[in-house]
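Predict the 3D structure for this chain.
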Amino acid sequence: MKSLIAFLFSVLVLGSAVAAENPTSVPQLFGTPENLRLVRDADSVDACILRHIEPATRADGSIDRSTERYEETAFFPLPPNTSSALPYLLLDERTYDWKSAGGRRPQFYARLRFHRGKDVLAIDFCFLCQVLSLSRGDTELGHANFSGNADLLLLAFRNIFPDDEPLKLLAKEAGLPH
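Done. Predicted structure below.
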């Protein structure tokens, strides 16, 4: 009986140390208290636009998803008002629709990075399907639907990249200042 309790306890502890496949809360999405602290107490925050490189088509006509990738444009440091507002949005439970599942395949358009020392947490955003994906290094931590505060996040990126035409168009379509 003691070994069963010890096993269950270790499963609970290990399970909470990494992000859930289908998170239902901000702590699950970010995976660890360290990741949450990195966003709250970042030394610096920067952002870039991602250029989607379409996957190659094989000779048989099928799509080779392993060749799909993103190229980063130059990273820009965030203006102070934006870098202080984004952690509140990203760590607010109301930002996320935890019940939303599936939909279209995200095509990420922007990347936000939180830096603290040598640690970097990256968040990629698809504004069309309102999905974000978190990663540290080559490890994806999780993804979630950010429809609760999609307009505020889009406005934040419009502030970072005021001349970006696709972001202007998205803001216009959403009825936001563009």
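The mean pLDDT is 85.
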